[in-house]
Design a protein that fits this description.
Blueprint (H helix, E strand, L loop, with lengths): L1 H9 L1 H30 L6 E3 L5 E4 L16 E6 L2 E7 L6 H10 L9 H6 L9 H21 L1
Antiparallel strand pairs: 1-2, 2-3, 3-4
Amino acid sequence: MKYVSMLLCLNPSYYVKQIYLKRKMKKILFAALFAAFSLLTAQADDVMTKKADGTYVVNTTTLAKDVKGYLGTTPVEIHIQKNKIVKVVPLKNQETPKYFARIKKLLLTKWEGLKVSKAEKTQIDGVTGATMSSDAVKENVKRGLQYYQKHK
């Protein structure tokens, strides 16, 4: 045993490697623990948040990943206060700006002021020339309102 320890003392690179491996393992362990802790403490509901003034904000980004407009997804944020829709805000999307501007102006404002229960039942017409995008936005709002009703 004395000879082994003497040989190890003569080989400093062995110690350097051991120190390097220990540090590397600590970093990996720390990263794994941090990830596990983040998962455990993460808010279970990233879709809906409640502001200090009592307004609920429903984000449909994850609720409607499969809902596509003309060029891609059309997520929205639905702001609801006292069971009434305050506003519907479009989030980043790839739709044609010219047509989506019409959707913002003509479609998104139609839900403002409606009670959630009435808004779920109301048939809202789409925007001419932007049918696919309109349908996608309406489906996003529908899913967002359904989520709100189940989780408020």
